């Protein structure tokens, strides 16, 4: 069986900046893959290429064997790729539930309809998705007044609305309290395993990464420098060198050791 | 051959003033992100003040001194406007700045007539440049050669100013990164004011230089501003070099367009602009804008459909209005019919602007196309009113299909300027294609069928059509399509990422809005019994914008209230004062600065204030806008 996502030789440069240089990896359904790396390593650029938002200079992205490079984001989404954004992007003039309803209407190809009240469409499904991410109590609130952590949760609900095969999450827990972070990732992992969704996520919080990822990839200056299980990656001297300046990996290891 | 060369020279001479004005607009936009509609008014003021000064002081010193002093005086007026008006609205959506500066334009138009009279004025010739030079046996005014040399000279001076002076370097830095310059301890306020003064100086200088070539008139402002918009859109907003190249391109197209398509010469220019925008959406030399500001119409309070109680209330109002013909007089009823027509026009623009987030500055095009569609059907095919009311708006639809396709590729100010430009195309076709449209004389004798020919009958007809159309638009807002449209407005990023084709959704909204405007236009033709090019003019477009704004840009039904209040006020004002533009301009400025949420928005704020927790709605709104911006 071929992998759900097969990425080969992805390259992206901006005038003078080589943001991503030759990234290749693969991801299976139900697998949770973390892409980590220091600020500016090219993680968001990778995500943006994967969902069609920016076009790579070179390389191929195969989703279940089909090439998706060159397709616009909306088509990639129709093929079953959901995503969340590093800086949340939601519909701030709508309620929380309406945000999800729009995604559901789009998924069911109902957005061209001029008849009927959209606020009454797919109510149950929308409520179910909101309950899944723990937002049912806030369903009627204006999205514009949500706290940042709640916006992140809403983004997850929206991303799940098209029953995706692949979920791309760019820093899904940034701006959340530590306890919330672990909860959200635990939830995501449970959904992914149950439904066989492949998850690619990036995260600066190493606790989250090492607890939930099946596999960890390390990106530095646009190049993948390591790939392996969390344990392997943590012990990799090359990775330690990259992260030493930031102290992140050291902290995570240190905490783990002192806990033992 | 010689003739072509002479034509080219004349084009180059016209390019000089166009470049001056356009570079001023471009510089202001580059630094302050404001599209200064009043730029045309400053150009006109430059010409008028220069006229007065050169008239008073003769001789070379009098002339050139007069031109220079006039430009400086107008620049000072511009600086004053920046300090008292623009500083208050830097963070408002672009639409508000365009509107506020348009309000100033209106005021200047009346003030100019008040001071200098409504007659066209003939300025003096430039001393030393009164003769003509023979080029291959044809005479070219020597003043033209001066202008031709002036363009590159000013371009060079501006380059030196921006690259070789401390001030210029700061301004360029501010264009790139405003926060950085602020953190350097540079007083951003004064940097802005000086940039604005420079831009206005260039506009006034361009106007002052025109007095030996053309008469000075109080309509100079609108004719130049449209050309300037075209120039900066082609050249790229913020680029002085782009303004230079595009000014030459546009002027030459004008000079030769007259030879190829004398009837509709404007069209060549607009066609070139359309092609440029499709190939390079930010103009030849422009750079993509950074994060666009929040689109108009994003409300903090989610919209909801009416409750049954509210529905009954609206029904009751409609019934009362429908009973009006039983007791109101003929005059009141015809005013009432006109208000109804504008309610539909405003509602259609509101749909595009508030629901779609696309602030059109040329919505009159579709109103006028509907009106002309109906009138042409009556005139050439002898169509009865019923048929003309149904088929006439199709012309509005066709126009919206065509122009909308180009327009929705852009957003923000580029969108506003392109819609304005397309509206001016249709206006110039109606104005210049005399054989078909009657030009300035319009088309007369468009009378309703006999059953609707009384003021009572027509009122009922208008009411029925308007109620059905407004209800349909409102239904559309809450339909799945309306949700998708709002999604595309709120966040282009997120909507694309959930499978919404934002451009095609907005195109459909543009067509819907254009069609409903066309229906209003067709009704208008039968109400007045005639059609004139003014139905397509900029003032009609702006009337629509003011109605939407007055009602409340963040509300679902503000446009209806805004149209009723505004139209009633305008008709009343017209009967009371000669200076209606001055008053109207003042109202617009006041509205933008003091009352940006409009009547309905204001009432809603009042209603929602009580149950709100302390903290203040103002700060919350600011946070929300910041979030919206960050999300883009
Ligand atoms: N539109 C752009 N134009 C020019 N350079 C860009 C652009 N977008 C990203 N870059 C550069 O590409 C590199 C990778 O950026 P990217 O956003 O992918 O990093 P990241 O790993 O997501 O960082 P972070 O952890 O801060 O989110 C950075 O050096 C960035 O400055
Ligand atoms: Mg990133």
Radius of gyration of chain B, in angstroms, nearest whole number: 25 Å
- Greatest contact between two chains: A-B, 43 and 40 residues
Strand order of the largest sheet of chain B: 1-2
Tell me the name of the CATH class of the largest domain in chain B. Mainly Alpha
Distance between the termini of chain A: 40 Å
Query: What is the CATH architecture annotation of the largest domain in chain B?
Result: Orthogonal Bundle
SSE class of chain A: alpha/beta
Mind sketching the topology for me?
The complex is a heterodimer of chains A (260) and B (632).
Chain A: E1 5-14, E2 17-27, E3 32-36, H1 43-50, E4 58-63, E5 66-67, H2 73-78, E6 81-84, H3 96-107, H4 123-132, H5 148-159, E7 166-170, H6 178-195, E8 198-202, H7 206-212, E9 215-220, E10 223-228, H8 230-235, H9 237-244, H10 248-259
Parallel strand pairs in A: 3-8, 3-9, 6-7, 7-8
Antiparallel strand pairs in A: 1-2, 1-4, 4-5, 9-10
Helix pairs in contact in A: 3-4, 3-5
Chain B: H1 2-32, H2 39-56, H3 59-84, H4 94-116, E1 132-135, E2 138-141, H5 142-164, H6 166-176, H7 178-183, H8 188-208, H9 220-235, H10 240-260, H11 266-279, H12 308-323, H13 330-355, H14 364-381, H15 385-391, H16 393-407, H17 412-432, H18 434-437, E3 443-444, H19 455-478, H20 480-490, H21 492-497, H22 502-528, E4 530-531, H23 538-551, H24 558-576, H25 580-594, H26 598-609, H27 617-631
Antiparallel strand pairs in B: 1-2, 3-4
Helix pairs in contact in B: 1-5, 1-8, 1-9, 1-10, 2-3, 2-4, 2-8, 2-9, 3-8, 4-25, 5-6, 9-10, 9-11, 9-17, 10-11, 13-19, 13-22, 13-23, 13-24, 14-15, 14-16, 14-17, 14-22, 15-22, 16-17, 16-22, 19-20, 19-22, 20-22, 23-24, 23-26
The complex binds adenosine-5'-triphosphate and magnesium ion.
